[in-house]
């Protein structure tokens, strides 16, 4: 049966696949027929993801994307790709008053510089096939909204959305598409946020701002990613897709 959303026969690299959104994206893409290459820093957690993938011939590669040496090694080990999902990143809350160079460099490095350099290396080494698709997992934070303590995180994600638009133009001649997904609050990180700056009551108030009356699940992001990786989105590039349950409407 014809299915424009099928990933059958496609080879896709997913970073940050050892947990959360990245893990879910890898699993859901495998269900759609893709051969998945997963990467992350934790061997144990990455293998946990690997065991959940459907189908066969998947690959797992341990790599710390903050290391130039390990980035280069990851690229060398990759076969030619039909898709790249840059999902690795960190969420850290800190107010402007308490910025320090090392903590700012950590969040900008992991969320912005590492995925951009990985993308550049894959293009340079011709590891991205013609008509392949690159998807960055960004955020509504930094592009549409922000909140207390999110200024550095917002900066890291806002930069990604800007890069997506420029890279889409740069790579259009190779028929390589570049897009981002901008999620609202996803179940994987709500407890993290609650434990840092916000009380339980404040979290509940935040949830009430979602018109669809729920926070997002990792599958919500994964299904949007599948669309961007599939042939169904073959005329979509330079776009920042919002998946947020209507949060930015309010």
How much strand? 15-25%
How far apart lie the N and C ends? 41 Å
Largest sheet: 7 strands, parallel
General shape: globular
Task: Summarize model confidence as the mean pLDDT.
Answer: 93
Secondary-structure element string: EHEHEHEHEHEHHHE
Count of discrete alpha- or pi-helical segments spanning 4 or more residues: 8
Query: Spans of 5+ residues with little confidence (pLDDT < 50)?
Result: none
Radius of gyration, taken over Cα atoms and rounded to an integer in Å? 17 Å
Structural class: alpha/beta
- Helix fraction? 40-55%
Tell me the number of strands.
7
Question: What layout of secondary structure does this protein have?
Answer:
Blueprint: E1 11-14, H1 20-31, E2 35-40, H2 43-50, E3 59-62, H3 68-77, E4 81-86, H4 101-124, E5 128-137, H5 151-170, E6 177-183, H6 190-196, H7 200-207, H8 218-229, E7 240-243
Parallel strand pairs: 1-2, 1-4, 2-3, 4-5, 5-6, 6-7
């Amino acid at each position: 049966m014809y299915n424009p959303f099928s990933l059958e026969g496609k080879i896709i690299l997913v970073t940050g696949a050892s947990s959360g959104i990245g893990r879910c994206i890898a699993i859901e893409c495998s269900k759609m027929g893709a051969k998945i290459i997963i990467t992350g820093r934790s061997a144990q957690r990455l293998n946990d993801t690997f065991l959940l993938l459907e189908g066969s011939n998947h690959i797992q590669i341990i790599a710390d994307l903050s290391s130039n040496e390990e980035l280069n090694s990851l690229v060398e080990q990759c076969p030619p790709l039909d898709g790249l999902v840059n999902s690795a990143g960190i969420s850290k809350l800190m107010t402007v008053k308490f910025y320090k160079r090392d903590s700012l460099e950590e969040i900008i490095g992991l969320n912005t510089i590492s995925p951009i350099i990985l993308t550049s290396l894959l293009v340079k080494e011709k590891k991205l096939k013609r008509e392949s698709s690159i998807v960055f997992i960004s955020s509504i934070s930094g592009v549409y909204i922000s909140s207390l303590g999110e200024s550095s995180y917002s900066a890291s994600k806002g930069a990604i959305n800007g890069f997506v638009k420029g890279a889409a133009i740069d790579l259009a001649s190779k028929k390589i598409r570049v897009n981002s997904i901008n999620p609202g609050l996803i179940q994987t990180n709500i407890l993290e946020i609650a434990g840092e700056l916000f009380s339980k009551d404040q979290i509940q108030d935040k949830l009430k701002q979602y018109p669809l009356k729920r926070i997002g699940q990792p599958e919500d992001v994964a299904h949007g990613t599948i669309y961007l990786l599939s042939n169904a989105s073959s005329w979509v590039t330079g776009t920042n897709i919002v998946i947020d349950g209507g949060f930015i409407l309010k």
